[in-house]
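User: I'm preparing a small set of examples for a lab meeting where we compare how different chains pack in three dimensions. I only have the primary sequence for this one, and I'd like the structure in token form so I can line it up with the others. Please keep the answer compact; I'll paste it straight into my notes.
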Amino acid sequence: MRYFFRRLGRFLMMVLVLGAGYFFLFLPAQFDRNVNVVVPHAPYVISPRAQALHDSLRVADMHADTLMWKRDPLKRHKRGHVDVPRLREGGVALQVFSTVSYVPGGQNVKANRMSHDRIGLLDFAQLWPPATWFSIRARALYQAKRLQSAAARSDGTLVVALSAKDMEDALALRALNPDIVIGILSSEGGHPLEGRIDNLDVLYAAGYREIGLQHFFDNRLGGSLHGVGKGGLTPFGREVVKRMLAKHMIIDVAHSSEKVVEDVLDLTDAPIVISHTGVRSLCNHPQRNISDALLKRIADRGGLIGIGYWKQAVCDPTPDGIARTIKAAAEKFGVDHIALGSDFDGTITSYFDTSELAVLTDALLKQGMSESDIRKVMGENEIAFYLANLPQ
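Assistant: Understood. Below is the structure token output for the 392-residue chain.
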């Protein structure tokens, strides 16, 4: 009998070890692979004209959630959408890296409460530090540290820009070495502040230069487009906006309720961004795309509209469909105010990853957009915006 129980104990221990190995080593990668999808396709055929044009571009993207996944940003991966090697292959000079720090259970585009935290379990499975399992601020700080660590290990080929001068210097170096990629750090939602204004200084010190006010739920700053109340800025939200402006941080209203967007535009005449979105008159999805009138106010203020790559934003997420939206948005709001806002690695299904961005240049040419306008929307608008609006 003692022998039986000894064998049973060894068997149960083996099952426990194998289960833990699967949970920590394989499950995070499988989940990443399942939610950050690139639709299988044959290699895209790019016209010689489009390829030559693309090779001359400084591409820029306003939103990727790469830092939340268990991938070394410096290594090329077969899953997900973005890493530094693929950014280089796609001709990307500037990538805004956004950090996701809270996802509610049952997340949807219509109405969510800040409850049933799902990110804590993902952090645990990915073996993030214990502080991140329970603290939203700790998650934001850890993802910032991941980007800074990657830059430190990159031999100068990944530069985190904290100021306009940092960008200028990195762009000058990139003219000599096209392998250089510039990163800017953004928080997807103001909830890492945890209701304390002094935490804005903590995030700034960690490298954050842009903050999206909301994500998929109403928070202490105000209402989300996908929240329950969908209200405007709270008194705390107004305080945060004013402090951000004083620190020359960039305000992102992607995911914010229309009332929050109105309140921000009424509170300041500073240019703001909506980093990843669609255009409602082109893709009528009111739970994801704000009104054209508000997009026009953002553009008229000198802001940027980042066009996303997924179905709820553009309805047709093929390269041709995205190109049609970009061209129509440029005609509607002014070509100087349109940029790329992929939402890569943000649990979207895309028809290409960042290494294949030449297909978008090719599609824009097929849509009849001029080469000078393509140059703007594919990157120069975004580069000019951050040069003008990052801390001097």
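A couple of notes for your slides: DSSP finds 14 helices and eleven strands in the chain. Residues 260 and 266 are 10 Å apart (CA to CA).

User: Perfect, thanks.
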